[in-house]
Amino acid sequence: MLTPEQAILACMAVPLVGALLISLAGRLPNLREGITLVTAAALLACVVSLLPVVLGGGRPGVVLFSLLPGLQIAYKVEPLGMLFGLIASGLWIVNSLYSIGYMRANQEAHQTRFYVCFALAIAATMGIAFSSNLFTLFLFYELLTLSTYPLVTHHGTEKARDGGRVYLGLLLSTSTLFLLPALVFIWYIAGTTDFTVGGILADKLGATEIALLLALCVFGIGKAALMPFHRWLPAAMVAPTPVSALLHAVAVVKAGVFSVVKVIVYVFGFDTLSTAGAAHWLVAVAGFTIISASVVALTADNLKRRLAYSTISQLSYVIMAAALLAPLSLIGAVLHIAAHAVGKITLFFAAGAIYTAAHKTEVSQLDGIGRRMPWTMGAFAIAALSMIGLPPAAGFISKWYMLSGAMATQHWLAVTVIVVSTLLNAGYFLPIVYRAFFVAPPADPHGHPHGEAPLLMVIALTATAAGTVLLFFFPGVPLELARQMITP
Question: How large is the average pLDDT for residues 11-17?
């Protein structure tokens, strides 16, 4: 039995060892994919072993290196990191199942490189989840960008390279131009970058300086996809669908909003931001992003593009809710990270299944497809309910808490944004479901009938759709972790 400290180190080491073994087994596809699944399961076991400790009030940690006074590479598992670790490790298993079916069915090239880079991306994600301070988080944040770049450009086409340039350029430029100077300034002012309950900047800066520093941090975390630094996410849709799932649900954008919430809660602190009135602008920017991205999604015919702008909108809920600086809205923000993860990965799995089985990519092509792919479109419908915020799907609970927090603080702009965007969500998701099940399919002039995608893909998307419903009926673990952030 591992000690908590050993389990933390194992969480870092397991995906790295897995990446090495996958590369060695590259010429043996069955062995390579078996190693991927075993590695993912081993990582989940290590993460789950930490859950009772954290739920019991423990905050295990490990210091690897002390570079300078107050500047360490260190790990510490607190409630939000615990939840993110569970999401990333749990979804890696189903994404691996899905990837095996997808990559084989579509005869994708460079599959060994794909699985290796995926494992490296998960390793970086675990480093972000368990970072003890902003410096450690920054290092793993950059490693995640670099490890996912080969996945974004996987197809090697000119379009893929163009998307990769936008992806790498935006994420590296925002982090080095905004987040890195903010990190250095925080270390200079506070003497530490440790994530601390209540923050580390109390009584150290004026209101204007606090607001400017918050802006550097938030816009420096480009993975959060706040407008105007959102273009990398639609550009990255040139990647294979399992990579899109990684970007949207498992790691990359989640790492962005996770990092923003960590900075708001553990670097600045609610009291400091509230006293300075320094987060009002962030509520407005996040609200603008939510509505604008929803409108773009409403007009997009390409299914993956619609889902990409949906992600930009949905995860801005998390930032807006955290910026309200209210306990109820923070609970909603944390729950929405989990609800969006299982819901959005289901939607992308469904999009990939449709492409694999029917070779269709546009919403306008989906008439009657639910009759031929009932499992896929049934799962899509459940996940769409979660994105809209309707029961019995997990998104209902997170939106309920976010709306309750906005009303409790009488922040009517946030209330309006949540209500209007919910209607827009329904406007761009429900027509897809209606088309799939209630519009007659067009005659196929080529006579190539299709059914469901390969079994592994259907198993994966069914499992995540079920997870969306289970999270509605059994929200206990994420809810308790969210509450512990408020009352540690």
Answer: 97
Please, how many CA atoms are within 13 Å of residue 422, restricted to the half-sphere of its CB?
17
**Least reliable range by pLDDT among 77-81, 245-249, 476-480:** 245-249
* Token representation of residue 108: 């994708």
Instruction: Single out the residue of 380, 401, 399, 389 nearest to residue 464, CA to CA.
Output: 380
Q: Which of 205, 336, 152, 370 is nearest to 261 (CA)?
A: 336
CB 88 within 8 A of CB 129: yes
Question: Identity (one letter) of the amino acid at 403?
Answer: L
DSSP letter string, 244-257: HHIIIIISHHHHHH
Instruction: State residue 244's pLDDT score.
Output: 85
DSSP 32: H
Return d(Cα 466, Cα 41) in angstroms, integer.
19
Contact 233, 330 (CB under 8 A): no
Helix, strand and coil in the chain, % to nearest 5: 75, 5, 20
Distance CA 386, CA 38 (A): 30
Cα–Cα distance measured from residue 148 to residue 172, given in angstroms and rounded to the nearest whole number = 12
pLDDT digits (tens, 9 = 90+) for 435-463: 999 988 887 655 456 789 999 999 999 99
**Across 15-29, 97-111, 233-247, which has the greatest mean pLDDT?**
15-29
Kindly state the percentage of the chain with pLDDT values over 90. Answer: 80
* DSSP string for residues in 187-232: HHHHS--B--TT-S-TTTS-HHHHHHHHHHHHHH-GGG--TTS-TH
In the DSSP assignment, the letter for residue 436 is H
Per-residue pLDDT band for 488 (boundaries 50, 70, 90) equals low
Pairwise CA distance, residues 214 & 428, whole Å: 33
- The reported pLDDT for the residue numbered 205 is 87
> What does the block give as tokens for 482?
């969210």
Task: Kindly give the interhelix angle for 327-358 and 394-408, rounded to the nearest 10 degrees.
Answer: 150
- What backbone torsions phi and psi does residue 409 show, to the nearest 5 degrees? -90, 0
Using CB atoms within 10 Å of the CB of residue 404, give its burial: 0 to 12 exposed, 13 to 18 middle, 19+ buried.
middle
Dump the DSSP string for 414-455: HHHHHHHHHHHHHHHHHHHHHHHHHSPPPP-TT-----PPPH
**Looking at the whole model, is its pTM more than 0.85?**
yes
Structure tokens at 429: 């998701």
Contact 140, 103 (CB under 8 A): no
Q: Which of 62, 84, 82, 60 is nearest to 9 (CA)?
A: 62
- pLDDT category at 429 given cuts 50, 70, 90 is very high
